[in-house]
Amino acid sequence: MSLNLVSNTKSFSSSFNQSVRTQRFPGEHWKASLSFNNLYPYELVDLKAFVWGLGGADGRFYMPLFDNLGKPAKGTPVVLGTDQVGGVITSNGWTPSTIVLQKGDYFEINGEVKMVTENAVSSSTGQATLTFVPWLRTAAQTGQAIITDKPSGLFKLADDGQGEIDFEPGFGNISIEVVEAFYV
Length: 184
Hints:
By secondary structure, this protein is mainly beta. The protein contains 1 helix and 15 strands, in the order ββββαβββββββββββ. It has one helix spanning 41-53; strands spanning 2-6, 9-13, 20-24, 29-39, 61-64, 75-79, 84-94, 99-101, 106-109, 112-116, 120-121, 128-140, 152-157, 165-168, 171-180.
């Protein structure tokens, strides 16, 4: 798997002095390339049926980011506060006074995978502030679960041409490009 977080920025150059302004907008999303090599025919059948059964970019599926499959939660973390948006949320239910997530760790909320950009340390009462990318697309609500063990997000094939298989005697290879699927 190769993985990238695709940002959504726009740059504007001044025609007077060539200074550049850059603006960040919502819409960051995960993009990945998955390669499955040297699959035996019985393995290839299942993968081929799954990929081709998606119907191109129309199909949706949940997938973890394979570089870090998470870890059991330190406590029972939930969102603390209503209508939280952006790239920072307040949470509760963590094991008190400990690092609950380290920068680079993933978690799931709203069916979306997020990556922590700063260590999250819980207070003596189990509250922690999470700073992450990409930003929330749907507001988080009080009591909503924060999943740290095998967090997954909603993905789709990058386009309708994905799923080509290279056959060799006795085995096959398949590579696909996927992007995070979301609705705003």
